[in-house]
Amino acid sequence: MTIRSELRDDGIRVVTMEHPPVNALSVQGWFDVADAMVEAGADPATKVVVLRAEGKGFNAGVDIKEMQNTTGFDALIGANKGCFAAFKAVYECAVPVIAAVHGFCLGGGVGLVGNSDIVVASDDAYFGVPEVNQGALGAATHLARLVPQHLMRTLYFTARTIPAADLVQHGSVYAVVPRDELDDLALGLAAEIAAKDGRVIRAAKEALNGIDPIDVNTSYRFEQGFTMELNLMGVSDELRDDFAGTAKSGRSAGTDKAKQ
Fold first, then answer.
1. pLDDT at res. 188
2. Burial class (CB in 10 A: 0-12, 13-18, 19+), 166
3. Backbone torsions φ then ψ of 68, nearest 5 degrees
4. CA atoms within 13 A on the CB side of 166
């Protein structure tokens, strides 16, 4: 697990996620992201944050294999708490956060991006919340910040994805560029912000959060309650087993079962 945080001389802090093979973060990984964002906001030398990733895609959500290979609910509870901490830290970071997204941005990745202040993407980027496929609920709060309500519901119920280019028309993605130009685009926007008076920018971030119509922290925590219910029912383990090829639920992965 690697979460790197680098503060440049111009006040731009670059936080990079790199957890092969697909940046599906472990429990500790989510807390590491949270720690990096809290550290960034607490450092007066940080004027703006660029959140990016190395590898095949930006983020593939939680590490389901870790969850299915852990006895009991410890990994599930840890992932819930870790995601909540990471999303909250991005949203409450004292300076603007620019998410630079390439490839896939799924599940928890949408939580990070939806709570960011500015989103830029490469032309191969796509977004989705496949939680219903794994018997979980969550990140609808954040998906709703990227697309209109009815489109959000369609994407959520079907677990479909949407390309970054389609989000530009909704205003949630600022721009889409070829992948090799993504970092330059994000750093260019960051430089514009970093050139402003940092005291004003920090006040502006707090003010914008203060007038937000939805309390994203409470809204996401409400969603997580239904995830816990589905896990107690055993539904989530069955679906995650099918995905991960494990047998934590006590039945063979892939076994057909009537779904109520």
1. 98
2. middle
3. -80, -15
4. 13
Q: What DSSP designation does 71 have?
A: S
CA dist 31 and 110 (Å) reads: 16
Amino acid at 108: G
- Name the β-bridge partners of 54: none
Pairing relationship of beta strands 12-18 and 2-7 according to DSSP bridges:
antiparallel
Q: Are strands 118-122 and 48-53 parallel, antiparallel or unpaired?
A: unpaired
Q: Are 106 and 59 in contact (CB under 8 A)?
A: yes
CB atoms within 10 A of CB 213: 4
- Do 170 and 34 touch, CB atoms closer than 8 A? no
C-alpha closest to that of 60 among 41, 36, 81, 79: 79
Q: Half-sphere exposure of residue 118, counting CA atoms within 13 Å on the CB side?
A: 21
Report pLDDT digits (tens) over 115-146.
Answer: 999 999 999 999 999 999 988 899 999 999 99
Query: Is 0.90 topped by the overall pTM?
Result: yes
Cross-strand partners of 17 = 3, 53
Side-chain-facing half-sphere of 96: CA atoms under 13 Å: 26
> Exposed, middle or buried by CB within 10 Å (0-12, 13-18, 19+), for 212?
exposed
242 pLDDT more than 50: yes
Tokens of 241: 């087993």
The CA distance from 121 to 181, in Å, is 10
Alpha helix locations (H) across 106-248? 108-114, 140-143, 149-158, 164-168, 182-194, 198-210, 216-233, 235-244
Per-residue confidence at 203, pLDDT binned at 50, 70, 90? Answer: very high
- List pLDDT tens digits, range 84-122: 999 999 999 999 999 999 999 999 999 999 999 999 999
